[in-house]
Amino acid sequence: MPFDVEVVRKDFPVLSREVNGAPLVYLDSASSSHKPTPVLDAERQFVEQHYSNVHRGVHTLSQEATDAYESARSTVASFIGGAHDEVVFTKNVTESVNLVAYALGNRGDLGPGDEICVTEMEHHSNLVPWQMLAQRTGATLRWLGLTDEGRLDLSDLDAVVNERTKLFAFTQVSNLLGTENDVATLVARAKEVGALTLVDGAQAVPHQPVDVRSLDVDFYAFTGHKMLAPSGVGVLWGRDLDALPPFMGGGSMIETVQMTGSTYAPAPERFEAGTPVISQAVALAAACDYLDALGLDNIKAHENALTARLLDGIRDLRGVSVLGPDTTEMRGSAVSFVVEGVHPHDVGQSLDELGIAVRVGHHCAAPVCRRFGVPATARASSYVYNNEADIDALLEGIQRVQEFWSA
Amino acid sequence: MPFDVEVVRKDFPVLSREVNGAPLVYLDSASSSHKPTPVLDAERQFVEQHYSNVHRGVHTLSQEATDAYESARSTVASFIGGAHDEVVFTKNVTESVNLVAYALGNRGDLGPGDEICVTEMEHHSNLVPWQMLAQRTGATLRWLGLTDEGRLDLSDLDAVVNERTKLFAFTQVSNLLGTENDVATLVARAKEVGALTLVDGAQAVPHQPVDVRSLDVDFYAFTGHKMLAPSGVGVLWGRDLDALPPFMGGGSMIETVQMTGSTYAPAPERFEAGTPVISQAVALAAACDYLDALGLDNIKAHENALTARLLDGIRDLRGVSVLGPDTTEMRGSAVSFVVEGVHPHDVGQSLDELGIAVRVGHHCAAPVCRRFGVPATARASSYVYNNEADIDALLEGIQRVQEFWSA
Amino acid sequence: MTESLYQEIILEHYKHPHHKGLRDPFDVEVHHVNPTCGDEVTLRVKVNGGVVEDVSYDGHGCSISQASTSVMTDLVIGKPVDDALTTHEAFLELMHSRGQLEPDEDLLEDGIAFAGVSKYPARVKCALLGWMAWKDATSQALSSDQKKDTA
Amino acid sequence: MTESLYQEIILEHYKHPHHKGLRDPFDVEVHHVNPTCGDEVTLRVKVNGGVVEDVSYDGHGCSISQASTSVMTDLVIGKPVDDALTTHEAFLELMHSRGQLEPDEDLLEDGIAFAGVSKYPARVKCALLGWMAWKDATSQALSSDQKKDTA
Ligand SMILES: Cc1ncc(COP(=O)(O)O)c(C=O)c1O
Ligand SMILES: Cc1ncc(COP(=O)(O)O)c(C=O)c1O
After folding, report:
1. Which of A61, B276, B319, D86 is the most buried (most CB within 10 A)?
2. What was the pLDDT predicted at B333?
3. Residue D36 in this model has a pLDDT that exceeds 80
C-alpha cells in the first residue's frame, strides 16, 4: 500500500485532541510515540479473551497465552532479522543494556586494566550502566568524542578502541543530534581487537529497516514505546545469549531449584525472570506488523522529507541554530535546535501554548549538551503520523516565540 | 456496596468464554488474574488521550502523563499504607526482589561470614536472587524449614536468624501451600538481631488488607498482574529507599551525568531507570481503586468462603489430599492437591477438557514439592470473580478425573 | 470427558507399559529429568553390531511421558540403529508439528497416537522425555563403541 | 500567544532582574543547579542582627527561574530573617498548590504572579531554584552565627 500519512493519522486518536485551544502538533516521538488503534486493539483482544500466565500451565488459556507470547517473540525477531531464541523481552532498552552490563560483570569479564568503550553521544541509558560496571569491576571507561558537526570523531578510533577493550557500546542513531553512526566501521574496529559490540537501536528500529545479522553486532537493544507499542516492553537481541550467565533470578529462568543452589534455563528464558511483559509483547508484535505494513523504507522516506523541510525551514530563520547534522544524510528525524536569547524551557513552553509539543532539556544525553556548550535544547522529532502541516506549524511557532520573547 | 460476585463477574469478559465446549471455570488466579473492564478502560483512555513520556517535558501531554503516573504512585502507596516516595514501580515482584538484592550487593552489605535468611516455602523469585547474591558476595544462605502441616517450622528461628543475619526475606502468603505466615513474629526476631526484612506480598496484597507500616518491615514487594492489573508492572515499597545505591543505571535515575561519572536522583526515581511502565502503573492504580471499591475485607471473606467450601469438599473425596493448611485459618485461597494415582499433569489436562483451569507443576516453588515428596501438584486458586459454582465444578471435575483414570 | 489428547493407545501403554524395568546387560545408562514437571526416567541401552539390542527403563511421570517411552521401546528394540534414529527424527518432527502433520503410520506405528499431543506445547516435553534419553544413551554407546574400534 | 504562565510581572523581572550581580560583603555563598534543565544560580547572603541585610546572585536559566530569583530578593532583603522565612514558606506552599491556592498578595507581592506556575509541575523546580539557594545560604549563615555565639 502506498504510504498515506492522512490515512495513518486516523489510527491515532490523540491527534484529534486540542491543546491550549489549538490542534495538537505532536513532535516528541523520539521521546515516546503514540500507539495506533490496531495495536491497542490487538493487546485488548488478547487480554480479554486469551490472557493467562505463560510457560507454566497445561490449561487452554495458559497455552493460548504462551502461543501468543512466543509468536510475538518470533515476529519481533524477524522484524530485525534475528531468530526466535535470540530475543529477550525486557521492560525497556535501559533494562536490556543493564542486563548485558550485569551479566558480563557476573561472568567476570572485566577487571582493572580492561576497558569499556562508549561515545560522547550516548543516551544516559547506554552510558550510566557502563560507568557503574566500570566502578564495580575496576575497569576503565573510554569514549569517542564528537566533531562540531555532531558526528563521531573517528580520528582516535584506533587508540580508544584497543586491545584492552572488552566491550564497545554505541548508539546507532543519536536521540539528541539525530546523527546516524556508521555501524560497520565501528564494528570492524571492535572485531579487530576482539571486543564485543552492543548497539543501542532505540532511535533506529522505529524509523528504518534494521538487520542485526548484516550489522554483525553481538548485542542489539531497543524499546517498544518509541515504535508504536505500549510502555513497559523492550528487547535485547543477542547473537549468543547462552554464553551469558543470568542477570535477575526468579521464576521461569531456572532449570532446577534446590535450597542449596539452582541451575538455569537456556536463553531466552534465562533472562526473563518472573512473569514477563506478556500483553505488552503481544502489542509490540502488533506494532511490528503495523510498521511492516507501512513499510520501513516508506517510513524512512516520509521522515526524511519532513526532516529536510524542517532543516531547510530553520536555516531560513534568523537566530535559530541546529545541533547536529544539517542534512538528512546519515541522519534520523530528531532535530535539536536553540533559539538565540530564549531559554529552551521557554521555547518549549511557548510552543506548547500554541499546541506544539516538542521536548526540552538535555534529552538524557547531558554530555552532548556540555560538548556543545548549551544547558539544554529544544527538540522536534517526527514519526509516521506527522505531516508537512506539523513542520510548518513548528516553523511558524518558532517565529511567534521569537516575537514574544523579543517584545 | 455489598459484595456481589455475579455483578463482579460481568466486568470480566473472559468469563463468558467456553473452553473445550464448557463454560470457563478459571481457578488459576494465584498464577495471574484476569483484568476487569474498568481497569482496561482506564489504561486505554489514558493511552489514547494523555499519553507521553513522563518526567522530561514541559508540553501539555507530558505534564498530563506525569500527573497520571505520579498520582498512580500515590494511589498504590495509599493502598498499602505507604507514602508516595516510598513506592518504586518495577516490572514485576521478581524485579523488586532483585533490585534489593543487587542494591545491597552494590552497597557492600554482604561478605563471607554474613548470612541471608529465607524460608523453604519461597517462590523462586524470592529465593534465587538471594542464592545469586550469596554466590556473588560469599555470604551464606540459610532457611527456615516447614512442618508437615505446611507451616514454617519456628523451632530453630533463633538459630537460623541470628547475629550474622543481614537480611531476612520471606513470603507473607505461600503461593503453593496457601500458608499465611505470622509476619510479626518473624519481623520481631529480625529486629532483635538487626537484620533488614523483605516481605514478598505477591499473594497477600491482591487478597487482603495490607498495611506496610503496621507490618513494620523494611521492604515490601508485590506484583500487578495478580491483582487485576496488566502484566508488566510490579512494586517495591521501602521504608528508607534513599539509603540504597542504584540497581540499574540509565535515564531518569540520574541527577548529573558527565562522561567521567554520574550522581543519582533521590528515590523513587533512582530506581526507575529508563522510561517507566507508564500506562501499566496507571492501570495498577485503577485496579487498586477497583479492589478498594469492592473492599479488601469483603474480598477476603468471599475467598475464605470459597476456600472453605473447597477444603471441605476435598476432605470428602477419597484419594485426594491437600498440601498445606486444611482450614482457612491464616491461609490464602491457593489450594494445592494431589490425586492419588494420577499425575498432576494429567489431572490438570483432564480438568481442562472440562473447561476448568487449574495450574499444575511446582508453581515456582520446587523446594516445597521436594519437602513433601511430590514431583508436582495441581493447584486451584480463587479470586474476586469466582463463585460457588466454580468450586463445585472443580469438585465434580476431580471426581470425573478419578473415574477416567481408574477406568 | 473427551479424549482428544488421551487416545486409547496412550492410555493402554500408560497402564501397561512395555519393556519397563531396568535390565542387564547394557552399554550405557542415562538419567533424564523434565524440570518443569519433575518427570524422570532412567534408561539403559545395549547396542550390538549396529542394532539396538535392548532398551530398558524405569521412572515416573505423567501418562504422556510414560506411554511415549513405552511406545518408543517397541519402535527401536531390534532395529538397526540407523532406522531407529530415523524413527526418532520422525517422532520429533511430529511433536513439533503443532498438529499440522499427518503422521506416517508405517514408521511410527502406535506413535501416531501422539499426533494430538503436538497441539499442546506444554506436553511436548513430556512426550519427548524417553525419546531424548534414548537418543542420548545411544549416542554415548556409539561413540564409546567407536573409541573401542579405534583403540 | 496566551500568557497564562508568562505573566507580565514575570517577563518584567526576567528582562530587568533586581539585585542581580554578586556583591560584597557576604557571609555565605552557595551554588545551586537544576539538573533537569541545567539552570544554575550562585547566591550570596549577608545576615546581620537577625536581618537579611543583602542577597546578591548570578546565574543563568529560563525566564521562570531568573524572574523568581529576582522577585525573591525584593521580598527578603531588609526583612527580619524570621519574616523572610515565613515568606519563603508561603512561596513554597504556593508552588506546590497545583493552582489550588489563592496567593496572599500582602505577603508575596510580585510573587503572586507565579501562582500559575504551580499548575506546571515541570516548571515548579525552576521557580524554586533561587528560593532554595537563599534558604540554604541563610541556614548556613545562621548556624555559623550560632557557632560564633556559643564559641
Ligand atoms: C509468592 C510469590 N512470589 C513471587 C511471585 C513472582 O511474581 P512475578 O512473576 O510477577 O514476578 C509469585 C507469582 O508468580 C508469587 O506467587
Ligand atoms: C538512543 C536512546 N537510547 C536509550 C533510550 C532509553 O529508552 P528507554 O527509556 O525506553 O529505556 C532512549 C530513549 O529514551 C534513546 O533515545
Report:
1. B276
2. 97
3. no
Q: Give yes or no: residues B272 and B345 share one domain.
A: no
Residue of chain B whose Cα is closest to the Cα of C4: B353
Domain boundary residue, one of A292, A322, A355: A292
Q: What values do phi and psi take at B323, rounded to 5?
A: -95, 125
Q: Is B216 left (phi over 0), alpha (psi -120 to 50) or beta?
A: left
- Chain segment D2-32, per-residue pLDDT in tens: 456 888 999 999 999 999 999 999 999 999 9
B204 part of a folded domain: yes
Over range A210-217, report the average pLDDT: 98
Distance of CA C151 from the midpoint of ligand 1 (Å): 54
The domain total for chain A is: 2
Q: Tell which atom from ligand 1 comes closest to the C-alpha of A274.
A: 9
The CATH number of whichever domain residue D115 belongs to comes to 3.90.1010.10
pLDDT digits (tens, 9 = 90+) for D88-124: 999 999 999 988 889 999 999 999 999 999 988 888 9
Give the range of the structural domain holding residue C25, as residue numbers without chain letter: 8-144
Contacts of C140 (CB under 8 A, 6+ apart): C27, C28, C30
- Return the pLDDT at C34: 84
Touch of C by D (3+ CB pairs closer than 8 Å): no
Query: Which neighbouring-strand residues pair with D29?
Result: D44
How far apart CA A347 and CA A358 sit, in angstroms, is 9
pLDDT averages per 10-residue partition of chain B, 407 residues: 90 96 97 98 98 89 96 98 98 98 97 98 98 98 98 98 98 98 98 98 98 98 98 98 98 94 96 98 98 98 98 97 97 98 95 96 95 95 98 98 92
For residue C16, tell me if it sits in a domain: yes
CATH number (domain holding residue B243): 3.40.640.10
Residue C103 belongs to some domain of the structure:
yes
> Could you tell me if residue A35 is inside a domain?
no
How far apart are the two ends of chain C, measured CA to CA in Å? 58
Looking at the structure, tell me whether residues A160 and A250 fall in a common domain. yes
Chain D touching partners, 3 or more CB pairs below 8 A:
A, B
Residue D123 carries which side chain, given as an amino acid letter?
Answer: R
Give the burial string for A104-133 (b: 16+ CB within 10 Å, else e): bbeeebbeeebbbbbbbbbbbbbbbbbbbb
C-alpha cell at A299: 517510513
Q: Measured between beta carbons, which residues in chain A are less than 8 angstroms from residue D5?
A: 349, 353
Binding-site residues, ligand 1, Cβ < 6 A: A 251, 274-275; B 92-94, 123, 125-126, 171, 175, 200, 202-203, 223, 225, 234, 364
- Closest alpha carbon to A186 in A172, A175, A176: A172
Tell me the one-letter amino acid at A316.
D
Ligand 1 atom nearest to B125, measured from its CA: 4
Q: Are residues A266 and A139 in the same domain?
A: yes
The predicted complex's ipTM stands at: 0.94
CATH classification at residue B352:
3.90.1150.10
By DSSP bridging, strand B18-19 and strand B22-23 are: antiparallel
What gap in Å lies between CA C24 and CA C46, rounded to an integer? 9
Which portions of chain C are predicted below pLDDT 70?
A: 1-4, 146-151
Mutation target for A interface from B15, B95, B275: give the one with most A CBs within 10 A.
B275
Q: Amino acid identity of A237?
A: W
Write out chain D residues lying below 8 Å of A362, CB-based. 36-38
- Whether omega for the bond prior to residue A38 falls within 30 degrees of 0, making it cis, is no
CB of A180 closer than 6 angstroms to any ligand 2 atom:
no
The residues pairing with B19 across neighbouring beta strands, listed in sequence order, are B22
pLDDT of residue A56: 67
Interchain CB distance below 8 Å, A345 and D60: no
Backbone dihedral angles phi then psi of residue A368, each to the nearest 5 degrees? -70, -45
> Which domain covers residue A192, as residue numbers?
40-292
Over the stretch D38-68, which tens digit does the pLDDT of each residue have?
788 999 999 999 999 999 999 989 999 999 9
- Give catalytic residue positions of B: 364
